[in-house]
Amino acid sequence: MKIIMLGAPGAGKGTQAKMIADKYSVPHISTGDIFRANIKNGTELGKEAKTYMDKGLLVPDELTVKILLDRVAQEDCKNGYVLDGFPRTIPQAEVLDKALTELGDKIDFAIDVDVPDANIIKRMSGRRACLACGATYHIEHVPPKAEGICDRCGEALVLRDDDKEETVKNRLNVYHEQTQPLIEYYTAKNILKTVDGTVDMQVVFDSIVAILG
Ligand code: AP5
Ligand code: MG
Ligand code: ZN
Asked: 157 CB less than 6 Å from ligand 1?
């Protein structure tokens, strides 16, 4: 099963993608997590990606596409995957489609987690992230067991550099301009499913499971 998660920054793509990955035993692939791991490890890719991410801009397609195609070619992706944060532009979607078509394969579902902008800004200030393992928390909705420490790996949690209010506003603008057109793109392919992302995260997940079966 190959799934794409669509939705604004902070809509809950990562939260739902992890739950899907656990239930259906497929890898969760987040380009944002891959970039943040590279930033943390001080790689050249990380340094370059950070200059865009800190401004709330997209990392150029040339960098992003290669990373993603390398990742989905790995052995653990044979039976499917859930993509979180990719594609984010029409050209990215076209490259992915082309690569899959060449393998006689396709995406099964594109799930749009729908949350209005006003809810997003409120949510982001409460998010805490683990840059080591990609786990995500929320100080009110999903607190870690020990304050400031990742339940999964014990690393310190941080407020992401791009979760400052001004940057979140830029990310929302970029989303509306560059990523939202994908909703039409996948509607035309008859694989778009929309879920209400404003309700409790378990309820969001139940509606996704109802779609995936
Ligand atoms: P990325 O890491 O993908 O960030 P994003 O799309 O902005 O999305 P977020 O991770 O911020 O939000 P999310 O939807 O995963 O929400 P979450 O589950 O955490 O990308 C970051 C940057 O990397 C981009 O800006 C870009 O620069 C670059 N990049 C990445 N991919 C790229 C690509 N393909 N091309 C170019 N550039 C790329 O939830 C948010 C918070 O809300 C959490 O605290 C969570 O606990 C809470 N929450 C979740 N669900 C609920 C709920 N139902 N109710 C209440 N709270 C909830
Ligand atoms: Mg995320
Ligand atoms: Zn962790």
From this structure: no
